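Reposting from the mailing list since nobody answered there.

I have sequence plus structure tokens for a pair of proteins and want to know whether others read the tokens the same way I do. The first protein:
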Amino acid sequence: MKEFKNIQNFIFDCDGVLYSDLEKVFGQVSKRMTSYISQKLNLDLKNAKKLQTDYFYKYNTSLNGLMIHHDINPNDFLKYVHDINLDFLEKDLSLREELIKLKAKKFVFTNGSHEHVANITKHLGINDLFDGSFDITDCNFIPKPSIEPYEKLLKKFDINPEETVFIEDIAKNLKPAKKLGMKTVWLINNEYWGKKDSDKEFIDYKIKNVSLFLKEIRLLKSD
């Protein structure tokens, strides 16, 4: 892990990385996506879900497909689908401690919205520990893994990719990061979409726990 010693910037995906129970959180978002599509396109829930899934696989976000084919208002969509209940989400004291002790800048990079990131991080008790976030609106709704949002993220926060690590649960989203010079870390999971391409060479490191990984880096940097 010595290659991580000089890392000055940590970029975290939001969903599935800052918290582990993806189904309880993103499951709600997914259901609201289905409901939104059903209402806007006058489809029953079964066909709305199919369209949602098809667009996700083809365009990397369901929203991207809806904008291309149905002229959906993206801000209206994002507001609706992220209106979820996170009362069950407990504060992550271990993650908070490691983020505080980590001597580096910290950013969140998501295909969701700033409001969703704020909601998640507030419930986790870590909302005051990031130097910035980059969401789908910051790149005119172009999602990861298109390379444009990665380039705009680096430019927005004046980040040197050679001093940066990106942590993701969706393996293929690490490919552009690696191409731009970042160190790449995949958070191991068994989600079909998450583990696709997880055997590729553009992944530098695989971890099971974000807090423990940050602790390893912290101890390494203190040597």
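The second protein, same order (residues first, tokens after):
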Amino acid sequence: RRAELIRVAYKLLARDGVHRVPLQQISSEAGVSKGLLIYHFQTKDGLVLASLEWVLESTEARIREHLAESGDPATAISKVVDAVWIGPEANHDFFRFYLDGVEHEARSPEFDEFADRARSIMNSFYQEVIVAGVDAGVLDVEDPTVAAIQMRAVIEGTFLQWLQTSDW
């Protein structure tokens, strides 16, 4: 039941924005009482955090699956992007929700642990790809850790620019 509530919350929060969706709307959409949401998540921030965790775990699984299919360091970067890029509608919702999550992480100490974990997971994927590329002679990188941070910044920045276009 908890997983179903998280999926319903994600759908609404991604579409309408974390600050615009009250718990009552989520509970109505899920067909449960507001009290049940509070029982499972204690607060709206608890539900947002659970939704972010679910998104992170889903994204991590998708990236691992795509990297396992790759086998070729030269195509590994595109496999990571393919794993993150699901399609216009899904990505539009995902990145709007991601931005709300970043805002929560920046302002709410209870999100610090999640933010550190998310950053570590995503940076490690990019670093793994870069190290494999260096080992295969495909990439010439002095510091894979710095390059991973830069690679993530470029990919997320590209998605941010895409999100701001009117014809996404």
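Reply #1 (J.P.):
I read it the same way you do. The mean pLDDT is 90.
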